[in-house]
Write a structure and sequence with these properties.
Layout: H1 9-31, H2 35-42, E1 45-53, E2 56-66, E3 69-70, E4 74-77, E5 81-83, E6 88-91, E7 95-104, E8 112-116, E9 125-130, E10 136-141, E11 147-149, H3 156-173, H4 175-187, H5 191-213, H6 221-243, H7 249-252, H8 254-276, H9 283-315, H10 322-346
Parallel strand pairs: 1-9
Antiparallel strand pairs: 1-2, 2-3, 2-7, 4-8, 5-7, 6-7, 8-11, 9-10
Helix pairs in contact: 1-4, 1-9, 1-10, 3-9, 4-6, 4-9, 4-10, 5-8, 6-8, 6-10
Length: about 350
Amino acid sequence: MSGRPRPSLFVREACSAARLVWLVALTVAAMLFSEAAFAHEVRPAYLSIREEAPNELRVLFKTPMQGDARLALKALFSGRIEMMTPVVSHPTGDAMVQTWRIRTLEPLAGQTVLIDGLQNTMTDALVHLVLANGNTWTARLTPGTPSALIPASQSTWGVFTTYVRQGIEHIAFGFDHLLFVAALILIVRDWRRLVKAVTAFTVAHSITLTCATLGWVTLPSRPVEVMIAISIVMVAAEIVRMERGQTSLAITSPWMVAFAFGLLHGFGFAGALVEIGLPQGDIPLALVAFNFGVELGQLAFIGALLTLAHVVRRFAAMPRGAAVASAYAIGIVAAFWCVQRLDAIFL
């Protein structure tokens, strides 16, 4: 009988998770060829309405673009309005920003705002209204519910839940962030060290998310996206090194690497939040809610991965070399993203 200690349940499940991570990585790879169109769809539209004088409103409407094409969306109000200025449009990278001024002939509160065409897309629209009396209203419109009734005011809870949902949706479709977390699970085979690493990643990206969103520290978004892809490749390489019996800082102290790369990923989260827009009267609340939503989504992903690993382990044996194969699959997907994002910068 061998004297070698039996691996803990967590270790065995983490190893089984390798097989699942491999499948996740391959699934993401299969989606890469349609990634541009898909990303175009899931980026939210943003409608800002600000009352600058009694019954006079400044409207800003941001819609996702791909190349020279934008989503065919239009903001409509149920009440009678007059156009005070023509619509001025200008592209900003991957979005089209339109601004104009209107005069309402009926009170805005009680009217219905509709994002016409939203029902034909896979994206959402965030609507933010600021009235002259200081009251604000934020709503999330979806393809299934493309319109909403404008109330006289909105509760703090309404703002909080809206941005929590935005945070959850961002991490759910943030395949690069999820792939980094999956790679982190593969490199950390002890639950205490995993908790420490995930906590470090959370603290780090919360710091840069806040600083970047408030404008204290800014980095250009496209180079940040390239570096995020590179961070995934580097962690995938560390998994292979670990399986070969080698050691490094990422293997011995994964929380330090998770913290360093978490700072980088925070800029990526901030870019999405800036693109969505923040309610000027509730910026701290929206920041906390969005970050909370991101963490909920991240924890749900980790829990689902380990739970599925436990289920799979009961019905199938993990093939030899699954961890290495998973690392190569993750690295290949991340390398593809890196090339694709570099291409977007230089071409």
